[in-house]
Structure formats: C-alpha cells, structure tokens
Amino acid sequence: MSETEPAPVHTQVLDGLALANEIRAELAETIAQLVAAGSRAPCLAVVLVGDDPASRSYIKGKKRACARIGMDSTEHLLPESTPQDKLLGLIADLNADDGIDGILVQLPLPKHISAAAVAEAVDPAKDADALHPTTSGRLLAGTAELISCTPLGIMAVLDHYSVPLEGARAVVIGRSNIVGKPIALLLQQRNATVTVCHSRTRDLAGVCREADILVAAVGRPRMVKADWVRPGAAVIDVGVTEVDGKLVGDVDFDAVLGRASLLTPSRRGIGPMTITMLLRNTLLAYRNRKAL
Ligand code: NAP
C-alpha cells in the first residue's frame, strides 16, 4: 500500500436476489392471508409494444415474479406498429377493468409513441410503475404511497444495511424521471444532503468524492473509478449496459471493492429489488382500491 492509498475497507456486497426474496416472501404471506380471507389475488397487467428481446425477457421475469408470490398477471402484446391511440385505448380498458390493480407499460416504447402520454394515461390508482405526473407530484409533496420501483428498491437496500441517512452527504449521478430525480427526493426526505449530477456537472469525480452515499444511474460502463469513492462510502450501482454479452455497471466494481463499505453488483444487485418494488406497488394499489 502506498502512503497515499487509503487503508482497505471491508466491503459488504449486496445479494439483491436474496434480499428481494426475503421481501417477496413477506408479500406472498400477505397475499395468502387476503386470499384465505376470501379476496381475489391482486393482478398486474403488463403491456409490451414491439418485440424487443430484452423487453420480452424483462416482462417474462416480472410475470414469473408475480406468479411466485401468488399475484395474478395479464400480458398484452402489441405489434411495434401499434398506433398511439390504440395503446391509449388498451390502457383505458385496463383502467376501467376492476380485476386489474396495477398497470405496467414496458419501456422503451417505439419512437412514434409518446412515453409521457402513456404515463399520463394510466390511472394513478393503478400506477404500479409510479410514472404518472400525479404520482411524481405526490413524491415531491412527500405524500406518495406508490413510488418509483428502482428508487424504492435502493432505499430498501440502504435500510437493510442500516446505512445512516440523516445528515449524510448523498451524491446521485443521473437525473432521469425514473431513477435520478426520485432517488434524490427520497434521500432528501430522509434528511440526507443531496447533490444531483448530470452530463454537464463540472468536476464530477470531485463531487463524488464528497459522498457518504453515491448512487450511479447513468448507463456508462465502469465510469465511477475507485478514486471517485470516499473510503467507507455506500455505493449503489444502478447502471446496466451490455458489453460483449455481459452486463456491466456504472461503477468499476473490482476497483471499488475494498474501498466502499457497501457495493451493489450489476447482476443480482438493484435489478431484483426493482421487480420486488413493482410487486409491492401492485399489492399496495390493490389494497388501496379494495380498502383491504
Ligand atoms: P437516462 O434516462 O438515460 O439518464 C441518464 C442520466 O445520466 C442523465 O441524467 C444524464 O445526464 C446522465 N449522464 C449521462 N452521461 C453522463 C456523464 N458523462 N456524466 C454524468 N452524468 C451523465 O437513464 P436511466 O433511465 O436513469 O437509467 C440509468 C441506468 O440505469 C441505465 O444503465 C439503465 O439501464 C439502468 N437502470 C437499471 C435499473 C435496474 O433495475 N437495475 C432500472 C432503471 C435503470 P443529462 O440529464 O445531462 O443527459
């Protein structure tokens, strides 16, 4: 070790699948109790436009996750050429269907369809993916129940490892509606002092070095280097990019091992937690709608 190298830190590496399974077991137990008491199972409607193989695989995983906890799901596969009006018509039907509790429209959508229009079409009471402006507005106001799945999964990881949030310096790289903005709000609501970085941030490495909690949600493989990480920081890697057939995160995982106190891998990391929070949101939407 050189004089300037910090002492090695024991890094806890998240097993996102194990933690996800713990939470899913609790959700399954709640559903079993509701069904035993005479209610129907909650139901998630999954909509896919086009036949992108990655999206197909994601929705397959989501449907399997539903089945494993006793949640029903329906699948609505539409061709790539589907006009926006037709998709909005399907969403209106799902909104009106009392047997559907949550609606997920898999992203990305074909270029001719406005993702914003689709998000606004979903009934906020069934907004399992938490993308409707009403849902985001509630998050801003601190009154949200349905919360974006990936940020909610990140908070569950931080809480699982008892990462102190109050007064902590948190840095989020990325400002998307799906990850960066909502995780920044959630961390702020828990009294962290949050800095949000993006493609125009000056001295990104220097800003990251200040962080007790660093969340990377960019989509640039191994962008976060070891010397961007303050020794002992909790590092949450959200990014996933396929490189030579392998999924690679935004964080240089091997280099940050032994420097961060907590590190999430790109496989079995935040991904399973995201799906778990989709299940959590669907169950919550069902209970709210049915007053159960
Ligand atoms: P996005 O909408 O493309 O946003 C990326 C953000 O990164 C933008 O705010 C962008 O800044 C910022 N950025 C781009 N280049 C940068 C740079 N050189 N320096 C600093 N910031 C930079 O992506 P997203 O939907 O948030 O997803 C981010 C990543 O997370 C992707 O890899 C995605 O696949 C992954 N993801 C994973 C999960 C999961 O469950 N594991 C869930 C969601 C997303 P500007 O705003 O300035 O353009």
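The mean pLDDT is 96.
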